[in-house]
Design a protein that fits this description.
The protein is an alpha+beta fold. Helix content is about 35%, strand content about 25%.
Length: about 250
Amino acid sequence: MSEQEIREGMLLAVWDEPPLDFDPDKLIKRVEQKKSRRRALVAVGVATAMIVVTSLALPGLLPRDEEKQLASEVQPTTSSPPTESVEKRAQRIGDKLTEKLAMRMTNFSELSASFRRGSYGYNPNSPITPPQRPYDPELSGFVHFSDQIGPTALRVILTKDRSVLDQACAGATLCRTVAQSDGSTVTEAQFMEGPELTRAVALRKFPSGYFAEIASFNYNPSTGQGLRQAAPVPVEVLTTLVTDPDVHWE
C-alpha cells in the first residue's frame, strides 16, 4: 500500500463532522475529574500501607525498657495481703475472748488474756520460752478473771493436732458433737464428780483441720492452784465463745 493510499484512508476515517452537542470544555473537565479521582485512590492506598507498616514496626522501634513499662501498665497488679504474725493473732484472739466473756459473765472482774506460741506446760509468767515440741499446739494461753471465789482462768488451745479430738471426751460424763452451718463441728464435754461440774470443754474443728478449744476447770489452770468446788464457766458459755463470729480463730 502506497503512502498516498494510507493518507486518503485516514482522511476518510475522520471525514465526518463531530456531533452537534460536542463540547470540548466538558470533555477536558471529565478527563481532569478522572485524573483527580485516580490520584485520590492512589493516595489512600499509600496512606493505608504506611499505617500497616508503621504498626508492625513500632514494637521493634521502642526501647526494651519502654516495652516492659507498657507491659507492666497493661497487666493488673495483684498483691497478697500481709501475713499476720502468730504473736499479733494471739493478741487479737485474747482481746476478743476477754471482751466476749465479760459480756456473757457479768459477775467476772479483772479480765485479761495471756497467749504465747506453743504449750503452757511451764510457768506462763516466765520470760523464757522453751523450745517448741512437735506435738505442742500452735498457740495456747489463758483468759484470766476473778469471781466471788477468787482469781482463776479459762484455758485456750489452738492446734492442728487431731489428738485433742480424742482427748476431749475421754472420761467425760456427757459428750456430744454438734455440726455448725459453716461446716465446722463443736464437741461439748462435761466432767462431773457427783453433782458438781469439775471440767467443761468446747472444742471446735474447722474444715481445714484446725482446732480451737476452750476449757473451764475447778481450779486455776494458769497456776495449778485455787481448787474450788465447781468449774466457774458452764459448757454452754464456752460453746458461745468458740463459735462467736467476731473471734477469728484461723
